[in-house]
Specification:
Strands 1-2 form a two-stranded antiparallel ribbon. β3 and β4 form a beta hairpin. The protein is built from 15 helices and ten strands. By secondary structure, the chain is mainly alpha-helical.
Length: about 475
């Protein structure tokens, strides 16, 4: 997992899974037949990206459970208690991968399975009255998933499901201080920044002026919660949380990114001012080497000497803020800093060397797949061949770490940095095979000129 919370605090896995207990309507027969599949063969490095994605989908297929209400997937096929619908670990992320695979192959079986997964999501929405609201932890991500299924399938029941979920999400917002929030969390993963990004995304695809109004109110509340420093603004994950994590998933970079995106939609200068103030703070605490790299530490206090490298607490995520500001302001400074983030990763020695902040994890959140996505996008933006070359090293690393057998392809990994012995092959998007498979689909799209179908609400990149 991206970071470790003390034993007296809510663990991140509890935070992500809480409120997503599967309803009795959806729980049914768990997948079987996965035991004993230990005979593996070396993965062929010459496999096409599409073939890797297909092999990945076969293993995910073996981890599904079919009920009268649809299909769901266990996050860990060996753990019957790991069922959930979240975008981070659960079925929503698997559905998005299958949508991408359908678009890449035009094989309708992938769309049919994705729709059955969406059916199970809608069953949970009908049955559950208390769901976490977040983009990666709950309701917002589930609604985004349903909207994507509708966009591909054109089946109106998924549009209706997305609208019903949006009504639940809007109804859960509460007026606090200068604006609105869903909980005390400010961040991308489970709080107002990620939910706000979802509302902005769905305002464009589903429609509704109230979505922009609520997203704007959430922005006013986040500006109010910013902590002034001599160099700019910083945000805690929540006002009472004792550690401050400055990067994207739980901290300043993510909140500032949301405010910058909100400025693009509203033109309200205070949002851009706050976003720039957040970026200035990050610049002030960054390790810059000889002025050509950007690495921001994991947390304060006690984590100033730990540097993660991927989406959650590393340059991959933090660069999203700099790139967004470059797009808004057209000022060269911000693209320079995005490139400094890329060079910080390249100079770290990964993926061949596994650093303390880049452990035995290959996923979109913490590992190789997230790094690969970033370099794919930065190559598209800049045309820098060194980024493409590094991207190929990441691809090689991922295939080297894959396990392939009769059930398909997967990636055993340590989700938690502080529990390196806890190894599991997972199915999810941010932690698991669906996200790794999506990376290979996006590589195929880059090479063929095909536009990937799914862009998550927190991504500033068009491809």
């Amino acid at each position: 997992m991206c970071h470790f919370l003390g034993s007296s605090e809510l663990t991140r896995r509890q935070f992500i899974h809480g409120g997503l207990t599967m309803s009795a309507a959806v729980m049914g027969a768990l997948p079987d037949g996965l035991e004993g599949r230990t005979k593996t063969s070396a993965v062929n490095q010459s496999m096409s990206n599409i073939d890797v994605a297909r092999a990945t989908s076969r293993w995910i297929e073996a981890a599904k459970a079919t009920t009268e209400d649809g299909i769901f997937w266990l996050a860990d096929p060996m753990d019957p208690d790991s069922a959930g619908m979240s975008l981070y670990h659960g079925s929503s992320g698997v559905v998005l991968f299958l949508l991408d695979l359908y678009r890449a192959t035009d094989e309708k079986a992938y769309l049919d399975t994705a729709c059955q997964g969406a059916d199970a999501i809608m069953a949970v929405l009908r049955a559950e009255t208390e769901l976490q609201p977040g983009l990666y932890t709950g309701l917002a991500g589930m609604v985004f998933c349903l909207a994507e299924v509708y966009a591909v399938s054109d089946d109106p029941k998924y549009f209706s499901g997305a609208v019903a979920g949006l009504d639940m999400l809007l109804g859960a917002a509460r007026t606090v201080g200068a604006g609105m929030e869903w909980n005390a969390v400010t961040d991308i993963v489970g709080g107002s920044s990620g939910i706000g990004l979802t509302l902005l995304n769905l305002a464009d695809t589903v429609g509704g002026s109230d979505l922009l109004a609520v997203a704007t109110a959430a922005g006013h509340r986040l500006v109010e919660l910013g902590l002034q420093t001599p160099s700019g603004l910083k945000w805690p994950m929540s006002p009472d949380y004792r550690r401050l994590m400055p990067n994207f998933s739980h901290g300043t970079a993510g909140v500032a990114y949301y405010l910058a995106t909100l400025y693009q939609k509203t033109g309200e200068e205070r949002f851009l001012e706050a976003a720039v103030a957040g970026a200035r703070y990050l610049q002030s605490i960054a390790s810059t080497g000889d002025g050509d790299v950007c690495l921001v530490f994991h947390n304060e206090p006690d984590g100033e000497d730990l540097f993660y490298l991927s989406w959650c607490h590393g340059p991959v995520g933090t660069a999203r803020l700099f790139y967004r500001l470059a797009d808004i302001t057209q000022e060269d400074e911000w693209l320079v800093w995005a490139n400094m983030c890329a060079r910080g990763i390249m100079q770290s020695g990964i993926p061949e060397i596994r650093t303390a902040g880049f452990w035995n994890n290959v996923s979109q959140c913490c590992g190789d797949a997230g790094v690969g996505e970033f370099f794919k996008s930065m190559y598209h933006v800049t045309g820098d061949q060194s980024y493409r070359e590094f991207l190929q090293r990441v691809r090689y690393s991922l295939l080297s770490r894959a396990v392939e057998d009769a059930s398909g392809m997967r990636w055993p990994q340590a989700e938690h940095r502080t529990r390196p012995g806890l190894i599991a092959a997972q199915t999810g998007y941010m932690q698991g095979a669906a996200g790794v498979g999506a990376f290979f689909l996006h590589l195929d799209a880059m090479e063929t000129g095909r536009k990937p179908i799914v862009a998550l609400p927190d991504s500033p990149f068009a491809v």
